[in-house]
């Protein structure tokens, strides 16, 4: 009551003689019982207490200002003032209902929302925001509730897996509390509300459940085939309890080293194991419901292969010792070490010894070192490469396993020539016969040069041989020009006794003679002189005959020239001679009148020949 709301002002444009703003009087024309105004200060105040925004948020107040101190004859003006009530947190949240019911499948995913509750608040903005919490119930650790910032709903979610077979329902007590509480109104009661939530879990067809999330099995590497190395168990959590069948995911057991009994889950060995090859085997066991094959579960099984003493120790590497000819007795020639593929719990411990027949070896002895290695010592000095270049020393190596395993390794000891400081220089007997100052590298270089020289000689001879191979002139390769003289004509199509055209390619082919390019002709000819310019007046016919004679008698001078004379025509040709060469019949003896009888196409040809004959007659 009497709370300041606002202040209004008015101005008067008249001369102060008649009145001014100081003499203005203010009043509320249209009454609002909730507000009042000071007449001279125009201050608006609340007239009634406990105004409620939730009941009415806006008020319209008409204010009148009158000059002349409000006396008769004064002028007035009015204005409307809109008064809006602002919200305060004076209302607690209230659930729409006191009991909520929800149902959920037991295989619902974690974090999945299963229901919503809401507490309504008549306030607005920040004053209407609430937070939700589960304060009581048998599922406080199974469920959680969060606030939706957009809708101010309480969202219930699953925190842990549900199991219909274990618990079928839950009861929760949910509380909604205002986030921003106004201390002025805290006496009005608690700004919170509660509701009960009941959640019913429904049964779902679940996959089999293994008794353990993982399995660790151990088996000795010498275990017998088909021996049981472990067992897995699983059950159907549903009320119907379907039988379970077990199998191995073969993608995890490509070598098929294990089998499993489909009924009881016993894992057996299918192939021999070797710890030195593979210490661990990781396989996956699959459990499937027989009534619903879509319900499948998997579990990893790690199988550790335990060691068995089944490998004998041996040298860590192929050792070859070098003994100096000028060595001293008791000198350590070589220190050797051994390895064992097995892995005993207490570590390796090796025993070294010589073969029984080599215990009294006059040249060498052995000594066990504290670091599980062995030293080879020379018994005397004066070793010589010429006397014996290589010594073989068999050594027996045994382990401490149960039963112990042993093997015999042979150490090769090579006698070498050394410097005075004991540095090995040469270990070959041939070093004695090598020339002084000529190393083995120089000898290899000389030998390589000799081999290279021999290869060059062989290539040279081969090329010469290919160059001197005879090249026979074949008829189809002879492209040289031939001069053929035809004295007679050949026969017709039925002439089977005509001259063989093959002889025209090479005149010498008639006699079976094929000149060769790589053989010198039997007849020696003088080198042909260069052709001198032909003087004026020389007989050309004589000149051609001389050149033709030279070409005929020189079989090596390309191109070959030949003269072929045909002495007869072929017989049996009904067409007669087709050649005009040396023919006894001339054009004047022929009659071309028959051409006019051949039709229009030959008429012009007949006229031409007729004209020719008439010209000859004239």
TrEMBL record:
The chain crosses the membrane at residues 432-461. It comes from the Eukaryota. It holds the Pfam family Cadherin. GO terms for cellular component: adherens junction; axon terminus; catenin complex; synaptic cleft. One of its GO terms (molecular function) is cadherin binding. Residues 2-95, 96-210, 211-315, 315-437 form the Cadherin domain. This is CADH8 protein.
